[in-house]
Amino acid sequence: MKPTGTITIKAERGLLLVTASRYAAPLVDEIKEHIPRPDREWTKPSWEIKAAHLEVVREFVATVAKAEGWEVLDYTAATQEDVEGQRAAIDQADLDRHVGAVLAVLPKLPPRSLALVAWNGRVLELELHQFLGEELFREVREASLKVYKPTLLMPGIERKRDYTSTLRIAADPRLIRALAELAGVRQEGRATNVEHLQVLDLDLAELFEDGSVAHFAGVNGKAWVGLTYLEVDVESWETTHRAWQLALTEERIYVVFQREKMVRELLEEPGHSYFAPASGFAVAPPERPSSVAAFVREAHLEAWFVEWAADLVAATTVTSSAISRSMGPLWYDHCWDHPADALLAHLRNTMRPRVNDLLQLLGWSGAFIDERIAAVSALKEQAVANCLEEMRANAAELARPLFKSMTKDDLLTLGTGHGIALKKSATKPQLIAELLAHSVVMEEIIGLSARQAAATR
Question: Is 321 found in the same domain as 382?
């Protein structure tokens, strides 16, 4: 939907500046017909005309505007405040017309035909995932601010996009609510009729900042934070794999984040390394303030965050990571996770004289962080020791299937390498039984010897 065209007349430096919001051939013809060549000059984006032709300019501009259905913004006939008010009224009328057209066409779309793929400031981008037919597609195109088909330059960069026909509409609360209604309210994690848009059924718990910040309660006791979509940079908060999640009240539209999940994602955002006491840090600490502290303060989560962080660093248990479990024995401390790993890494990375805002929020010192890192390291080292001890205690059970997978010649070679006299005439079960009587051989075959050698290097 094209916005209402405008022709602006301004007086500057003894000249009239005549500017059209988009090209209008009739205006160019009128200027060339009524203004002598020495008195006019095209200087993009305006025609510069000598001020003596003001009345003539007003006359033919009014004629062209009436014929084209455009509006005239004449700064020479009204105050700047009045003209800006006129411009604002035009913009509002265009917005109302656009909103009305989109609201009229949305109910006509087939189910699951839309995917929200971008939310850039005041504009939403929606991909079409269903064939609409020529007439309905024309109606969609005329109602939209723009319809285009993006070029696929680098596959996988924008994971939400299928690079089909895409329409742009205003991020107006009336349209956001209409899309929310089209999507349907769903419980957390459920699919919706508008892909990448989730409207959650949350209970409002508390309001802050005149309602621009809200705390919500979800199912299973999960806590959520909501910021009105006008108060948050929706595009920057969203990641390439996450749907936009909304909660609606009668007065406001909130972009919502699961409290603990959001804080953890900020702790682990690019630029911060994971905490691994044995291997150190993967990247140099960035010279910038902590975005975690900014979010915690903006979302009024200070009291919760301080208590949550204290509980994390006080935890006395570590767990094996899923990746480590899939790769083999857990005999290195980086194979073990502590609840405070990401927090401690973030705090260590942001310990700078000018960027210690998160430490100040928590009321912690660098010495306290060092103490907790040492404590976590000790927990992981103990977990490794327990793992090694368990492997030694169960060496026979662990080694037996490995021996069974070896050939008889391999078993004989293994025994010879350890000075064990094995009879070539012995059966494979007899060879295995003999090798299982030697702890050194068992520890070698299950990898304990290699682990101990690596630890002493």
Answer: yes
